[in-house]
Amino acid sequence: MLSIVNAAFFLVVLQFSTNTLSSAMNVRQYEAMRSQYLKTESDKMLGWDVTLNEKEKAVNATLMHFKKMEFDSAEKLNNFPPSRNFLIAKEDIEASKVFQVIQKMPKGSALHIHEMSLSNVTWVIKNLTYLPNLYFCKDSNSDGPDILHFKFSKNIPSPHLLCQDNWKLVSETRKRNVRVFDEMLMQSFSMVVDDPHTAYPNGNASWAKFGPSLEPVGDLVFSSAGFKSYFDQAMSEFEEDNVQYMEIRTLLLPVNKHYA
User: Fold this and answer.
1) Residue range 171-195: average pLDDT?
2) Closest by Cα among 160, 210, 159 to 189
3) Of 254, 124, 251, 253, nearest to 188 (Cα)?
């Protein structure tokens, strides 16, 4: 758009400098020319040549109605969800009527999505970590947050080089307090905290937490016990969002077959 405005301004300057016999273009003429250029560019925006049928017009009218309501509400309350930290605004976004309409609409593709963050983390905890013969240990010796490591095995695995404690059976440890244990997993698998502004005051702090939260998911996913069910779940979630195509970025890690 800036280029169009600049072009209009250039034409005005050119007329002033070259056509000395005519009177200079007045402000009203310039504003009319500028408005025409802006309208021309606006009319060529994505979808400009798409003609909606009556049903599509009705859907669009409904969507625009919800959009206006949410804009008006956000302006009054000063709490527009996209302008807030995603970790805080996520629930409000999911409750948005605009989001719910868009969620049902077909999407061409989801690009550059990473394999270890494809599926809902709650599903990972409630399903993959409840599988039998799953062991875990904790690496507390890193500069950042503790990192959990997992391994499926019918017997106690060999000691992990990075873990300061021995392998523990997840099912036995969880029995002590299911809620506390699963909350510990949620904190390890995600960046969700009560106060993200304090927990992640800058980009470095965010990255320091982001990497360690993916590692335990990788242990669960790249195993013969969890691989298929994880990707089935992930694709089902994208299908529910009406995504037609997925481009998955992966390290192609070997699948742990110790638990076959």
Assistant:
1) 94
2) 210
3) 124
